[in-house]
């Protein structure tokens, strides 16, 4: 009755991000539709091209019937209506301004996605997989990789069984 999300590490490819001096610290936010946004508790120094920074951050999204009815209803609608464009967990890589420049704002620099519907259809969780991070200013450009784990199959099956009972 829960979805486990782990953000292991991040690497960048040669791009405007690696050459931008104002981008120094990065954290990652994970969002399920409009419900929850969780972020890594630490922002870490931007890695050099080809290197990785390790967050080793893990979180649970509870989708049990008793306490999380709205999340369950969302998952049901996602499984039953394949035309929804909201079937993914969205990971946002965010630039965190350095302590001495707090007048600067946090800036979204890239996005990565994991389709929950795909996990359900392929009948397998995503374990320690590198997913592409797309540039927030040009969604055809890949600026790096985010290594994630998303364990959702059990929860999705449970929700699907409930759909069949309704």
TrEMBL record:
Top-level lineage group: Eukaryota
InterPro entries, alphabetized: C2_domain_sf, RPGRIP1_C, RPGRIP1_fam
GO MF term set: thromboxane A2 receptor binding
Pfam families, per database record: RPGR1_C
Entry GO terms, CC: photoreceptor connecting cilium
A single GO BP: non-motile cilium assembly
The RPGRIP1 C-terminal domain, residue ranges: 1-162
Gene3D superfamilies linked to this entry: C2 domain
Protein name: FTM protein
